[in-house]
UniProtKB/TrEMBL annotation, chains A, B, C, D:
Protein name: Formamidase FmdS
A Pfam cross-reference name: FmdA_AmdA
SUPFAM superfamilies: Acetamidase/Formamidase-like (SSF141130)
A GO MF term: hydrolase activity, acting on carbon-nitrogen (but not peptide) bonds, in linear amides
Xref: PANTHER family: FORMAMIDASE C869.04-RELATED (PTHR31891)
InterPro entries found in the cross-reference section: FmdA_AmdA (IPR004304), FormamaseFmdA (IPR054833)
């Protein structure tokens, strides 16, 4: 009789290079060897590094952000073999808790330099920047963005099951076509990249195969979820994931203490290392039963609650900053919405980079409002007013405060 | 001593053609004559027709939807001259209540035919369809979509101040350029349309001018808001609107008993006639003070609340239904997200058109999730489970019910 | 085809004495004649006077409060005969809406004089006082309590079905015993009171019987609900009521624009006249099925939401203001809790009577916290901070404001 | 540079008798020696035993509950000396997190036997009973109460600063008077009890003094809070505590994974050992500034949220089960309210003891509704419907399920 401590299915070492840890990997491929087995209906803890594998430090310089090696990302924990799972099943993943490591109670948000990673607003804000966040229980605050404090909507940025060979081939086909057709002056997708590929415990020949074929972990993808960066996959969420390979080969990582809708600065969440507690259930033949092509989820009941009337909400439309009209383009509209917030919050003394960082990681609500009223898409972004220790309502007096600065590069 | 009944600034006549009512208009133009004056700090009631001016009837045929005359839309109430308002000011509009007319306690949701209006999914669902909703106090239900009932998040689809001549010229320029460059097989924007233009009490020559130059009311636009179709502009909301002309010339209309994020079927809200109660305040020089380029709002405190854990949420990515990869396209992602819901809810016996209608008008939450993970945008759509009288959780048994049918055309 | 206006089952006349209106009554008795019939499953509107029948006026004197004739209260609308309802059934009452009358957009909150009605704190605050509240859509504010504004949690204070003769006899027995045993210097219950009894359309002899036997409407009672004064019976609530007589004989009244838990000043809600929209359903043999002895309800989904972190909450214990220890007495504890709030809010310039009125009618949350830790009961009272236009958090500076005065008697 | 692990100000040993641990104590007295110092503005972790000091085991017998030694309770962690705190100050305690120990992921709820502790309903349910709860991240479930699962509203049952000698004398005076005047057949309060008194690191003579004079920790008390058992003092709460002695001498304990309003079975929360993370701030002269006589708090933003419409709510009035009318007695009313829930939930197959346990520990909402309508107090108890895995709405079919049994004594 008696309930025992929850089993830890994978431990990580914060002081050892990520690429030397066999329970981690950074490419999606059906052949990455499973690092552990988990029983159907079992609850386990899984430890995770931050997505960069520890490249970013708790200091006041953004040099590490500027020089981050993106061929390494994202270091995921897994894959885990879930007993009884077969292709066509659905893996029900209940996220029972997510916690930072006790010995590392901090995280980071970065604006990547336009020439190394970039972000949603990099044409306007091309420099690297960084904010360090200190965790105090459920709360966080930053010396780089003063007068703000909030409860984290803690969650994993990435979770999903391995693609089958067929699914992987389809990913490489369609993303390859996009890359081939690209006429923009920027990368539109990342093909398989052998450099820095980490294939867990694979031997050399298998590792080479995975390195050459494996899909990058950067995008979420419809067939399995992956890096969906959905802020609401927090404590208590149930996620229904398609299974494509025997044993499911589930991986998870990229833990976020908090994130805003859009994660706009790319390294935009409050990135952290930590532990996730998950219960696994296999729903046999679930994909056909549910007509499922992409993951479904039910959020948990403990999201921070501000009250509907406690958001200051900004509208944006699909007319870009040069006055060009776009056709029902929600991406353009959301960029405009973000810019509207920056223009507004400036009046309190924040720099644009500070606001850009804040919008990336605070629990802002980004909604599709109207998407049919040609030619304009309309999106909204709600900023919870209660994260500030001053009054940001338009009718309150706006006083400029000493807001210090976020971290920049040493130049 | 004593508080009196709130003044009604405009009454409409449900039994008279909309184009004969001088307090209505259906084009944006600085010269539409004001239909009434409202004092700064005054609270008034304003009556509104439904956006089509009564073209859609409470019956079981979608013929009226198929044949709707879209050159007439949207019939707005106003414009109202707000005393003391000048260009550069901000008009603070507090929406104190929105109600349907007592004598017309019903509304409609339509899927426009692809050849006459269309909608977000018209390539897949090109037929006209309709659902009539009966109002029972704060709730609504439909004989055309059984087993669903919910509290309305009642709001105006359109509100805004008139453009100045300069703003109007800019609208016509940029939308004209989009039209000129269009290579799609569908309209991407609507130029000024003299047919059915209604300019309120304008005399013939002024009416002709407005008909020729006036911007269509279809899109929301960044400079003033307009048809933003934001479901959260409900009871208790405060909206901050830029003022471009002396007296603001505020108009409002397109009342919705409820709407989902995206209003995807275009005639997608529960459209109704009714009364809106508004308090007006002029914030002098507000645009410069707030750095305001587009409207801002603070939602009210009485939105229907389901609890964060009561949404079944679907993920979608910017890979279209033909397998083509799009680059960070939130519009494509949201279309996929909607399709995922349709595929799921089919299993209870609903037709695709019923679900399409339902997603348009029920209080679904459409979020931008990730918008930086190249090449995929990820959006989510949360369906409140408590609007159904059966259990839609994936783990509950799925039983097909007799769902009847929505209204279609007579063929 | 077509949905019609909801039927009004009872109209009242604001300009005619309440006792002359045959659709009203002010005593509970099985023989009060039904004023109208309502079908099972029907939705109707029912108009109601305020509970005093119009004795309190919109002015700046509390003389009317001091001199209120309490033998007249409460004027209820009904009773209504609900078709098919029989003793042992449960009447499911869905409150689909509650609205003030358009022509009377105001309400009142009163502190009754200790010698005429009294209230929860009348030993400390024995004077009559009054606040008038103006309604602006969903919001209300008062010239008598400045710097406060909130959305109403609108509801009926009283609803229930008529007692059977047996139930009525039981009420008179047990309350008579309490009165007989009373040693306090104050009334502990009110026996039947012939003066001012109003028995609807009863003829003289029936009226005399009802006047002599009828139970006062002052207390709620377990067998039927009645004057339960539950603030959460707002829009969208479903209430399950025991049926004791054929046809149920349902009555409703005492509409409140808002009320706090406890309704502590007795005339403590924002009392108003208005209209309630109700759907009725008879659940056959429901009392036995549900093991029901007292009403049950499910609140609606549109209560004003402030967020759990937006309440400043006060603790109180069952030690009275003279230092006497009471044994697990939640009533004493709640009185102390209320006093703690008064002591705190004084620092902003409010008078004690203003706070007493405010705590009675604003949507404060009064909870039982601990009720087993001998000898102290502990209760809490949460004050929503967002109803004030200044910052009431303890860490904010406390500045005394000009708070004017509530209405007092002319002396 | 760099944020370090939060300091643990007190560790406890789960395998060593509580009375041998010098950082614990179980009486309130100004002279209990401080076990550690904490700086003003410091964040620390504090470990706590469960309130019985480990007497209750994870098994299927309630013998340990029946025979619990109540002279030992409650083992509190502390007292802690907070630097700079002086009498008259307010100690602001921010509860940044509460967690069970990793190695002991379970808790217990007990019904104490009427002859040893008792509880709110012990005249009806006099037997000892127990339920063990297993923790799965934020959720808990019990093999003793099947078909129920919920997120914990985790909090400390007890926190407060030490009484001064004067305050302690007042406690002993007034509780002594109550005991002296008692005519009930049960204890109404507990005087100082030398048996099993634990005075931390006090030497023998000091320990004897504390044992003879020290107040029991059972009741909360207005002057300092103590065992207030307020379920909403959860993660993120800020509590403002009066300071009565130099250094404040703050103690905390009695951690609860969850509790319902009233904690009705006395050992009614989900009792656990664990760790609490607290930030301390001293507000100089705060008691006078705030007019503070009892603690005040602001709850945190992450309480489990069910939506207002997801509670099934029961009404109770101050007429006891023998038909006796009590005068505005909220305690009697709340007892009746609890009984109404038991009568209702029986129909699903639960035993009364299972429901009694469940109402004690699940996040039920107990409200004061009306407290002025002579002679009846009315209270309500809202049961969150979503904690059950079946539908408890009255309109759903009620099917009896196999509910097993809670733990009873071996007889």
């Amino acid at each position: 009789m008696g309930h025992k401590k929850i089993r830890t299915a994978l431990t990580v070492d914060l002081n050892k290079p990520a690429w030397e840890q066999s329970g981690l990997h950074n490419r999606w491929h059906p052949d990455v060897p499973a690092c552990a087995k988990i029983a159907n209906n079992e609850v386990v803890k899984i430890e995770c590094l931050d997505w960069t594998g520890g490249q970013i430090k708790n200091n006041d310089s953004a040099d590490d952000i500027k020089n981050v090696d993106l061929t390494q990302i994202h270091y995921l924990s897994g894959p885990f073999e879930i007993e009884t799972a077969e292709p066509g099943d659905v893996l029900l993943v209940e996220i029972q808790d997510v916690q930072p490591f006790e010995e590392q109670p901090w995280g980071f948000t970065g604006v990547f330099a336009a020439e190394n990673g970039g972000g949603f607003l990099d044409e306007i804000y091309p420099e690297a920047a960084k904010a360090i966040w200190d965790f105090e229980g459920i709360f966080c605050s930053s010396r780089h963005i003063p007068h703000v404090r909030f409860a984290g909507l803690i969650h994993p940025g990435i979770l999903g099951c391995a693609p089958s060979a067929e699914v992987l081939a389809e990913w490489n086909r369609r993303e390859g076509e996009l890359i081939a057709a690209n006429t923009l002056a920027r990368d539109v997708a990342k093909p398989p990249e052998p450099k820095s590929a980490h294939a867990g415990s694979a031997d050399e020949s298998l590792k080479a195969k995975i390195a050459n074929e494996g899909a990058r972990t950067i995008p979420g993808r419809p067939e399995h979820g992956g890096n969906c960066d959905i802020k609401n996959l927090s404590r208590g969420s149930k996620v229904y994931l398609p299974v494509h390979v025997p044993g499911a080969k589930f991986s998870v990582g990229d833990l976020h203490f908090s994130q805003g809708d859009g994660e706009i600065s790319f390294c935009g969440a409050i990135e952290m290392a930590g532990v996730i507690t998950i219960k696994f259930n296999v729903i046999k033949n679930g994909m056909a039963k549910m007509g499922m092509k992409s993951p479904i989820f039910q959020p948990g009941p403990v999201e921070p609650q501000f009250g509907p009337g406690r958001y200051l909400t900004f509208e944006g439309f699909s007319v870009d900053e040069k006055g060009k009209q776009h056709y029902l383009d929600a991406t353009v509209a959301y960029r405009q919405t973000c810019l509207r917030v920056i223009e507004y919050l400036r009046r309190y003394g924040y720099s644009d980079y500070q606001i850009y960082l804040l919008l990336s990681c605070a629990p802002v609500q980004g909604h599709i409002a109207g998407l049919v009223d040609i030619p304009n898409a309309c999106t909204t972004l709600g900023v919870p007013m209660d994260i500030f220790d001053f009054d940001i309502r338009p009718e309150a007096d706006a006083v400029k405060l000493d807001m210090g600065t976020c971290a920049f590069t040493s130049k």
